[in-house]
Amino acid sequence: MTVVLQAQGLGKKYGKRWALRDCTIDIPAGHVVGLVGPNGAGKTTLLKLAGGQLEPTSGTITMLGGHPAGSPAQLAKVGFVAQDTPVYAGLSIAEHLRLGARLNPGWDAVMARERIGRLGFDPAYRAGKLSGGQRAQLALTLGLAKRPELLILDEPVAALDPLARREFLQGLMEAVVEHQFSVLLSSHLVSDLERVCDFLVVLVDSRVQVAGEVDKLLATHHRLTGPRHDPDRLPAGQHVISASHTDRQSTFIIRTEAPIHDPAWTVTQLSLEDLVLAYMDQRTAENRRVALEVQR
């Protein structure tokens, strides 16, 4: 398996505060990877470390087999579109493309011009006059025209309306099909990830809770509903992700490779959002348990 990103015990500290700590992960090449987690989980910090914009405080990270900022050639392999889709308000679209050509040795000027044309943008128009969706498309064009092996997108559609989000993600997927590169996409909008991602990473408190191909994750996670049940009495191969109970009924989200034969359970499949929330709720439940112990 070719690995596009590999982190081992990775951490980043600002003063006394750890923004990312003990992060270990392998992300395979050839996928559109969705990175999801609550605010403060360390998603943006991880992406900036991957893009070579930050240096780790602890641990190691490699991108495409090398140090993220190890050389100009290494930097040229990675495109980065930040959360605020930064462009220069005073520059025209054409000036952005000329700047991209000067800064990137592998710049694909033909692709950039054609994409701007397909979007119906006037090259003479200044970026400061563009809508949020148009600025995002310009930023995506700059990232794609770099012809990277990996494109990193940090919450690129968070501030866009639903139509602009759909157009952005459609343009991204068309480019992935045409140019065959890997994508690492951070978003808190699980519905968007469900449309475009085939590999998922859930990051909570800087720790990877689960990672894998979306189809396989959905096939191995189930919701069990039935009579009130102690989770310790479930079969050893059924790993409980989250649990909730009423006086008479229990509901478990479990992970298992084996078929479920117990007729006492009603078994239902999960959506991607169900799966993500189960792993995030796992941490919330732990926080509640610790708070109760402190109160006692």
TrEMBL record:
Q: Which UniProt keywords apply?
A: ATP-binding, Nucleotide-binding, Transport
A GO MF annotation of the entry reads: ATP binding
Entry keyword annotation includes Metal-binding: no
Domain ABC transporter, first and last residues per copy: 5-230
- InterPro entries, per this entry? AAA+_ATPase, ABC_transporter-like_ATP-bd, ABC_Transporter_VariousFunc, P-loop_NTPase
The protein's matches in SUPFAM superfamilies, at most eight in alphabetical order, are given as: P-loop containing nucleoside triphosphate hydrolases
Cross-referenced Pfam families, in alphabetical order?
ABC_tran (PF00005)
- Report the domain of life of the source organism: Bacteria
Q: Which Gene3D superfamilies match?
A: P-loop containing nucleotide triphosphate hydrolases
Protein name as catalogued: ABC-2 type transport system ATP-binding protein
Native source species: Streptosporangium album
